[in-house]
Design brief:
About 30% of the residues lie in helices and about 20% in strands. The chain has two domains: about 1-25 and about 70-110 and about 160-235, Rossmann fold; about 25-70 and about 115-150, 2-Layer Sandwich (SIR2/SIRT2 'Small Domain'), CATH 3.30.1600.10. By secondary structure, the chain is α/β, with parallel strands linked by helices. It has helices spanning about 5, 40, 45-50, 50-70, 75-80, 95-100, 160-170, 220-235; strands at about 10-15, 85-90, 105-110, 110-120, 125-130, 145-150, 175, 200, 215-220. The strands form two sheets. A six-stranded parallel beta sheet has the order 3-2-1-7-8-9, with helices on both faces. It contains eight helices and nine strands. Helix 5 (about 75-80) packs parallel to helix 8. Bound molecules: nicotinamide-adenine-dinucleotide (NAD). Nicotinamide-adenine-dinucleotide binds near residues 27, 29 and 33. Nicotinamide-adenine-dinucleotide binds near residues 16, 21, 29, 180 and 222.
Length: about 240
């Protein structure tokens, strides 16, 4: 029995690099998704107002790809830590790969592409599961407004920010994986961590990143880095 470990809180803060080895493109890396699209055309409230069809199609394609892909070994190892620790995942990802390996506590900072929400007023927090990959123009909320993807767009509030900050502040160990820490306000969350907490960053570009003092950089992919860290945390 590892009672002392069960009490310990591990928080995983994941970004696009977490899912790269599942075949989902990252955001800014060379060859990343946004080399092919302008953020303003597909990921802002203005884009939705201008051309909801284009935005819907863009996210339909992302959803299709996510459904067709599988979680990788790093998602699995994070889930396995639950047998020894109290683990919470805070993800910037809109994919559901953490849930698909059975992670119990997953907070999506930027939404979950497998859900939609109303584009009408005052219905920010009601989410509807999307069956399959396609959200259609005729899909409506009970009030008759068109459904949009449950994704936080650039320029929108991040409703889960405060909840995420509280969780990170209580972490005994923080594992940051596959994020360039350039998308705000999410990136600022790591500064909420207690000075008594161990902080790891797994990213192949870890050395080039401007890391706060005390962060242990593991210059590996998500799978390579989590394999090393899993051994360390469970030995
Ligand atoms: N899978 C998804 O849901 C998905 C995909 C693309 C972008 N997004 C969203 O776009 C925003 C982008 O910010 P971000 O910081 O998450 O992504 P980012 O693209 O800005 O940064 C990705 C980071 O992942 C690292 N990386 C690349 N390959 C990796 C690998 N195999 N293992 C580990 N790390 C690897 C890169 O070095 C980089 O630091 C976020 O909101 C993100 O969730 C989500």
């Amino acid at each position: 029995m590892f009672l002392s470990e069960l009490m310990q809180k591990i928080v995983v803060f994941s970004g696009a690099g977490m899912s790269a080895e599942s075949g989902i493109q990252t955001f800014r890396d060379h060859g990343g998704l946004w080399e092919h699209y302008r953020v303003e055309d597909v990921a802002t409230p203005e884009a939705w107002k201008r051309d909801p069809e284009l935005v819907t199609q863009f996210y339909n394609q992302r959803r299709k790809q996510i459904i067709e892909t599988s979680p990788n070994e790093a998602h699995l190892l994070i889930q396995r830590l639950e047998s020894r620790y109290d683990v919470t995942v805070i993800t910037q990802n809109i994919d559901d790969l953490h849930e698909r390996v059975g992670s119990q506590k997953v907070l999506h900072l930027h939404g979950n592409i497998r859900f939609s929400k109303s584009s009408g007023p005052n219905q920010e927090h009601t989410y509807y599961p999307i069956q399959g990959w396609e959200l259609k123009a005729e899909d409506r909320c009970p009030e008759g407004y068109r459904l949009r993807p449950h994704v936080v767009w650039f320029g929108e509030q991040v409703p889960m920010l405060e909840a995420a900050a509280t969780i990170i502040a209580q972490a005994d160990q923080l594992i940051i994986i596959g994020t360039s820490l350039r998308v705000y306000p999410a990136a600022a969350l790591i500064h909420e961590v207690s000075k008594h907490s161990a902080v790891y960053l797994i990213d192949p570009n870890a050395n080039e990143m401007n890391l706060p003092f005390g962060v242990q950089a593991i210059k590996e992919t998500a799978v390579g880095g989590m394999s090393l860290l899993y051994k360390q945390l469970t030995s």
